[in-house]
Amino acid sequence: LTGFETQNKYEIKNTLGQRVYFAAEDTDCCTRNCCGPSRPFTLRIIDNMGHEVITLQRPLRCSSCCFPCCLQELEVQAPPGTPVGYVVQNWHACLPKFTIQDEKRMDILKITGPCVVCSCCEDVHFEVESVDESSTVGRISKQWTGFLKEVFTDTDNFGITFPMDLDVKMKAVMIGACFLIVSLSFTNT
Q1: Are 102 and 170 in contact, with CB atoms under 8 Å apart?
Q2: Residues 137-148: b if buried by 16+ CB within 10 A, e if exposed
Q3: Which end of the chain is least crowded, N or C, by CB within 10 Å?
Q4: What is the pLDDT of residue 152?
Q5: CA 155 – CA 99 distance, rounded (Å)
Q6: 163: closest CA among 136, 143, 134?
Q7: How many angstroms from the chain centroid is the CA of residue 46?
């Protein structure tokens, strides 16, 4: 209504629709409104007991494919202060691509999105693949919620699927990847 971007807040739910975490962006007004989708942020993920369990930190970086030397990166800490992994944007002329790395910066998984990120009447899928990109092991999806909700609200639904045996630290990094994708691909300001 005012044209000012506010701090984003999120609910993280399990497959049964029960809230398991709450996430809140920690940025100032000037950063949100001047830097737009490229803005740096700290996202604090809190469990239902009110304890901060995961911290996501994203520095200010360029979001243009014309500058492959300073693409987006997100650090995942769990517990806060202990890095467990990174989400690194990879340069590609047409596709949104990311690498999931562990705390030692070893590549664990790859993520590839669609050439055109448009959610008109259907879900948008980002495929989670093995490091050699030979097999799909999961998916991050922006779920289509219907015309009225998509047009008249700032609310979106995302889903994450990953192997059940994936290390719990990498599951936290996958949550971080979802937030980085949201901020890059589905934020208007």
Answers
A1: yes
A2: ebbbbbebeeee
A3: N
A4: 63
A5: 27
A6: 136
A7: 16
Question: Residue type at 24?
Answer: A
Q: Cα(189)–Cα(183) distance, rounded to whole angstroms?
A: 10
The two tokens of residue 121 are 């009447």
Return the number of other C-beta atoms located less than 10 Å from residue 107's C-beta.
13
Distance CA 66, CA 137 (A): 30
Please answer whether residues 37 and 72 qualify as being in contact, where contact means their C-beta atoms are separated by less than 8 angstroms: no
Residues in Cβ contact with 105 at an 8 Å cutoff, skipping those fewer than 6 apart: 86
Query: 10 Å Cβ neighbour count for 90?
Result: 15
- Partnered with residue 136 across adjacent β-strands are 129
Contacts of 38 (CB under 8 A, 6+ apart): 60, 61, 62, 63, 72
Burial (CB < 10 A; 0-12, 13-18, 19+), residue 102, is middle
Between CA 125 and CA 138 the distance in angstroms is 10
Can you read off the two tokens belonging to residue 37?
């989708």
pLDDT digits (tens, 9 = 90+) for 89-147: 998 888 889 999 999 999 999 999 988 777 677 888 999 999 999 999 999 998 777 76
C-beta separation of 25 from 8 below 8 A: yes
